[in-house]
Amino acid sequence: MNSKTFPVIVLVDHDKTLRYLFGRFAERSGFQLSVVSEDISLKEIQSFDPVVVIFSSQELLEKAQPLVLELTRIEIPILVCSSVTEEARARELGADYCLLHPITFEGFQGALTLVHAPKRA
Question: What's the rounded mean pLDDT across residues 75-103?
Fold first, then answer.
């Protein structure tokens, strides 16, 4: 598998189980998953040329607010794993879309479809 031919999803995470799950989902969907720590810089993220950045928790999204602002400025979509009850707060923190618990393959694919949908004026 040549990684240069597959679009990249960057996952900000520290949970090995979730890394495995998203890796499988990404592979089935024709994407390459790159897992990074929460202290990554914008320049490092840009080096991946990602189609989306996923934060594995709202807590990580909240801690990374300076990075989230920079990602928003350069229009890289941000997803976060969240519960239905935390969805409004996730959007306040800068998430474009939420992957709602329990995270399923269909939910993952649906979120990626939303990311690639044309933006409304």
Answer: 96
Helix (H) or strand (E) holding 10: strand 8-12
Domains and CATH numbers, the chain: 3-116 (3.40.50.2300)
User: Does the pLDDT of residue 78 top 60, yes or no?
Assistant: yes
Contact in structure between 12 and 36 (CB atoms under 8 Å): yes
**What is the reported pTM?**
0.91
Among candidates 86, 97, 14, which has minimal Cα distance to 56?
14
Mapped onto helix, strand or coil, the DSSP state of residue 75 is: coil
Residues 6 or more apart in contact with residue 88 via CB below 8 angstroms: none
**Cα-based distances in Å from 72 to 27, 58, 97:** 26, 16, 13
Angle at 24 between CA 119 and CA 60, to 5 degrees: 60
